[in-house]
Design brief:
The chain is an alpha+beta fold. The protein has a domain of 104 residues. It contains seven helices and four strands, in the order H-H-H-E-H-H-E-H-E-E-H. Strand 3 and strand 4 form a beta hairpin. The N and C termini lie far apart (60 Å). Bound molecules: zinc ion (ZN). The site of zinc ion has 5 residues, from loops.
């Protein structure tokens, strides 16, 4: 292709506006995509009151949370067993994910694995602040006592891995739990033989809550 001899330069003001729009769209898309991994790092939000079942105070701000609570950096994989967020996953779940990842041919990137109760409590408060009500928040974030992340029985995966598991996960017993969370996977008994059960609508309809 050759450029048209009649093409003209964009007026500077319009060009700047277009660049600004592109930067804004790219920023929003990046934050939305990375949110499962970043949500624990946003400072300045109020936390939930109370204590965990082992007597630790709930985190009152993101600054209280560390890798010991299950925070994991971007790009974390199942090999990062120095991180409690990976090391404290249920062994059967981790084994199934490793087997699937090996067959996929690429490392699954984990955005969240195991989380402490105080991390989960902070996420729930963050969701209540974000969505404006406990009822709406409960569709997206489980309680500290009901979360499969806190028990080490769930992972949130980056899009490509979740997409692959949506088609192949059942063979490894790995199933999507919630219709509104394409990234959240858990082990399900019998899935390898019978396929995965229908996902629940959202976390608020989970009987573990
Ligand atoms: Zn999850």
């Amino acid at each position: 292709m050759t450029s048209s001899p009649t093409s003209r330069r964009l007026p500077t003001g319009l060009a700047l506006l277009l660049v600004g729009l592109l930067v804004a769209v790219a920023t929003i898309a990046t934050v939305a995509f990375l949110r499962p991994g970043l949500v624990g790092l946003v400072p300045g939000l109020s936390g939930a009151g109370g204590t965990t079942s082992d007597g630790q105070p709930f985190a009152v701000s993101a600054d209280d949370l560390t890798e010991a609570d299950g925070l994991i950096p971007g790009g974390t994989t199942l090999d990062d067993t120095n991180l409690p967020g990976i090391a404290r996953l249920d062994a059967s779940l981790a084994d199934a994910l490793r087997e699937a990842s090996s067959d996929y041919g690429m490392e699954f990137v984990i955005t969240t694995g195991w989380r402490s109760e105080r991390y989960q409590a902070w996420l729930l408060q963050d969701a209540i602040d974000t969505y404006g009500s406990a009822e709406e928040a409960s569709r997206w974030v489980a309680t500290p006592s009901g979360s499969a992340h806190v028990s080490g029985d769930a992972v949130d995966l980056q899009f490509d891995a979740a997409d692959w598991l949506s088609r192949h996960g059942a063979a490894y017993g790995l199933c999507r739990t919630y219709a509104n969370e394409s990234w959240h996977y858990e082990l399900r008994d019998g899935a390898a033989q019978n396929g995965c059960p229908e996902p629940l609508a959202d976390a608020s309809s989970d009987p573990r809550q």
